[in-house]
Design brief:
Elements (H helix, E strand, L loop, with lengths): L2 H11 L10 H19 L22 H4 L2 E2 L20 E3 L1 E4 L5 E5 L3 E3 L3 H21 L2 H6 L23 H11 L2 H4 L3 E2 L2 E2 L16 E3 L3 E5 L4 E8 L2 E9 L6 E9 L2 E16 L6 E16 L7 E9 L1 E8 L2 E8 L4 E5 L3 E4 L21 E2 L2 E2 L5 E4 L7 E8 L8 E6 L4 E4 L3 E8 L6 E10 L2 E11 L8 E3 L5 E8 L5 E8 L5 E5 L7 E8 L2 E7 L2 E8 L7 E9 L1 E9 L2 E9 L6 E10 L7 E7 L16 E3 L4 E8 L10 E10 L2 E10 L10 E5 L2 E6 L2 E6 L4 E5 L1
Parallel strand pairs: 22-24
Antiparallel strand pairs: 1-18, 2-28, 3-4, 4-5, 5-22, 6-7, 8-9, 9-10, 10-11, 12-13, 13-14, 14-15, 16-17, 17-23, 18-19, 20-21, 23-24, 25-26, 26-27, 27-28, 29-30, 30-31, 31-32, 33-34, 34-35, 35-36, 37-38, 38-39, 39-40, 41-42, 42-43, 43-44, 45-46, 46-47, 47-48
Length: 718
């Protein structure tokens, strides 16, 4: 940010009396209270869910929030028609109908939910209506209400100092057979490259690859640093050598979010941004706002010669990166995009919108539609590929773009859905976008289903269920197209209700289990074939084993109650289920360290905890929803993850990071390696462990350390 402009803002603020409630100390207390509430489990986990600040508005200091009062208005999270019937346990259901537009382009409609736009005028009408409704709503609020919103909702406005840099079956044998058949490839062994067996990124769905920050093919490690550098490291029996590197930062401000390695190609998905500060002097007192224009680039490189990677393609998509999947040579990239409504709050003149009355519109004849409609490779998404809600509610676009790796400069298909999306679940042939709606007397989760194959993206159906999804493994599609969804609901009395719903391929409810645990929320799930495992928690951990072989009649076969709870479940083979979570005090429910549990689920009517280990650490990236952070290979008898100890008064609250590696032998957990992570090598989260052949590699920041897996003695570091 321009230093001169910062000084102007400071000078403007000198004569303003700041209310005590907005002092930096009190604002920090409010933020801490929200953090504490979230960490206690009263809010759903969001570690892999990016909030959608369309353009970040940043205050220069907490005390200037009153003067600048910059905020962002965005979607109401609704993907449904407001006039739809009230949702009961059965939810709403709608199937797609397809027609043909005048230009021959396919058009789709999910009655009562959304429809294909007929033109950019159609899109603009929805946006204009939404903005007008939002503006009227904002103008009705009092200044104090607006100020209180600075610490509410999905976006928290952070104070910055002088620098305004923005970094942004009923028998045990039958159950075991079913589970073995359903276990994903990533759960039962690593892939092989040539003669070298190696670990893979832990994924949600078999044959649906996911990007990560570090990859290996058994012969090389591929790594990206936050500084912008991409490195390719040869690995040979624990000996490492850098064979090449290149830098993205010389192109623009870029941050790689995910990486793929496939068929001698490297795919880097990077967010790029340009920030600018604007000053408006149209009122008595000037005010300022910050624009943060984002785009997502999909860079593809030829890495047949690892020493000299060659750029093959670049697809540019407007907006923020959400997630991606790679299936059968097609990459599917999900992004969010929307136009801002920026407001300021002044002590003298209340609330007013920053944008002008004659704001740009997206009519078909105007080139200015580029500012309203998300663009791909510089071209606006065709109007017919934009799905509009039946009733506008100031919502961003959620965009799906497919790219064939053999044609890395082009896109195969795209769809834009106007509506906020919490997360995406990808089965082998369907994409499910889901979001929580908190506006009614209880929460509900709304789901829109798309099919995807060979790059083509087609809307299929929509539905909803009561409650919200707390964990990404709480939604799963079986081989017959039935969708299993486990949710938690807060009732008006303040109690929780955990339930399971089964929807058919048309998103119609066919079966359910209501109020499974009684005033307990869901902590984790795992669906495997015809079996489901659901963990709920208040002071103890009931692990429910559910028979799903008859979708119309799901049945609880057993309930195991033990101290603590599992936040992550993974099938270990031989009728065993691994749980990673927290130990807890059975009287208070307070957590007491990370806990490993091994459950014997070979007899679904008699599930047992056969081993446990409580670790002297307080936190793990894995337990905040990042399942890709765990190295896990039951066939190799290996699992590991990063963890942290917050410290205590005796250590002056010194934070320490570790990488922990384990095996399961003779009915017990075995500690194979505990490596302390140095802050000099970068922050302790984002760490990855991997193996190639008989050697383990620990990646932390720019440092890679190799170990011999026979005894876990250190070999070398790079």
């Amino acid at each position: 940010m321009d230093d001169k402009m910062i000084e102007e803002i400071k000078k403007e603020a000198e004569d303003i009396d700041i209310p005590e409630s907005l002092s930096p100390e009190n604002m920090r207390k409010k933020l801490d209270a929200i953090d504490n509430e979230t960490n206690s489990g009263s809010a759903q986990k969001t570690s892999n869910i990016k909030p959608f600040p369309i353009k970040r508005a940043v205050t220069i200091a907490a005390s200037l929030a009153v003067i600048l009062g910059v905020g962002v208005g965005y979607g109401s999270l609704k993907l449904h028609n407001d006039v739809a019937p009230a949702v009961s346990d059965s939810g709403i259901t709608a199937q797609v109908t397809q027609s043909t537009a005048e230009d021959g382009h396919p058009a789709y409609s999910i009655p009562g939910v959304m429809h294909s736009a007929t033109s950019y005028d159609d899109v603009n009408d929805v946006i204009s209506t939404a903005k007008a409704e939002y503006e009227n709503e904002m103008k009705k609020q009092q200044r104090t209400d607006l100020i209180s919103n600075f610490t509410d909702g999905d976006v928290v406005y952070e104070a910055v100092e002088e620098s305004a840099t923005m970094d942004s079956a009923d028998t045990g044998a039958a159950a075991k057979s079913t589970m073995d058949a359903a276990a994903p490839a990533a759960a039962i062994g690593g892939a092989a490259s040539g003669d070298v067996a190696h670990s893979d990124t832990n994924v949600r769905t078999e044959d649906v690859d996911e990007g990560d920050i570090v990859k290996t093919d058994g012969k090389y490690i591929y790594q990206y640093f936050s500084s912008g550098e991409v490195r390719i490291i040869s690995i040979d029996n624990g000996i490492m050598e850098k064979v090449s590197s290149f830098d993205l930062s010389d192109t623009a401000d870029a941050y790689v979010t995910e990486m793929y390695i496939k068929d001698d190609k490297m795919v880097l998905i990077a967010e790029m941004y340009e920030t600018s500060l604007s000053k408006d002097v149209s009122n008595d007192r000037p005010f300022y706002y910050v624009n943060d224009d984002r785009s997502v680039h999909v860079f593809t490189y030829d890495i047949k010669d690892r020493t000299t990677p060659k750029k093959l393609g670049d697809v540019t998509i407007d907006g923020y990166f959400s997630t991606s999947r790679l299936v059968n040579g097609y990459l599917y990239v999900m992004t969010t995009y929307g136009q801002p409504i920026l407001y300021y709050c002044g002590l003298d003149y209340g609330i007013a919108p920053i944008y002008n009355e004659g704001e740009t519109t997206a009519d078909d004849s105007s080139d200015d539609k580029d500012d309203i409609i998300p663009k791909i490779n510089g071209e606006p998404i065709p109007a017919e590929d934009i799905m509009l809600p039946e009733k506008a509610k100031d919502e961003p676009f959620y965009v799906i773009t497919s790219i064939k790796l053999d044609s890395p400069n082009e896109t195969v298909d795209s769809k834009a859905v106007m509506g906020y999306v919490d997360q995406v679940y990808a089965s082998s042939h369907s994409l499910f976008f889901y979001s929580a709606d908190w506006s009614g007397s209880y929460e509900r989760t709304e789901i829109v289903k798309f099919s995807y194959a060979d790059g083509k993206i087609v809307p299929e159906a929509a539905g909803s269920v009561k409650g919200y999804i707390d964990d990404s493994f709480c939604i799963d599609e079986d081989k017959n197209g039935n969708l299993r969804v486990a949710t938690t609901t807060w009732n008006e009395s303040g109690s929780q209700e955990s339930s399971l719903y089964i929807l058919d391929k048309n998103m119609k409810k066919v079966g359910s289990l209501i109020d499974i645990a009684g005033n307990e929320g869901i902590k984790s799930c795992r669906f495997m074939g015809d079996m489901g495992y659901i963990v709920t928690f208040r002071n103890t951990d009931p692990l429910f084993t559910v028979d799903l072989s008859d979708p119309s009649n799901p049945r609880i076969l057993s309930e195991l109650t033990i101290p603590g709870f599992s936040e992550y479940l993974h099938y270990w083979g031989d009728g065993l289920l691994l749980g990673v979570g927290y130990d807890a005090d059975i009287e208070t429910g307070g957590t007491e360290g990370v806990k490993l549990s091994m459950f014997d689920v070979s007899d679904p009517k008699n599930t047992k905890e056969v081993a446990k280990m409580v670790l002297d650490v307080d936190y793990s990236e894995l337990l905040y929803g990042n399942y890709k952070s765990i190295l896990i290979d039951p066939e190799k008898n290996l699992f590991g993850f990063s963890a942290a100890d917050w410290g205590d008064e005796d250590t002056n609250w010194e934070e320490k990071g570790y990488y922990l590696l384990f095996a399961y032998e003779d009915g017990e957990f075995k500690d194979l390696l505990t490596s302390k992570l140095s802050m000099d090598d970068g922050y302790w989260d984002g760490v990855r462990g991997l193996y190639a052949g008989d050697y383990f590699y620990l990646v932390h920041g720019k440092k890679i350390t190799s170990y011999d897996m026979k005894d876990y003695n250190k070999i070398s570091s790079l």
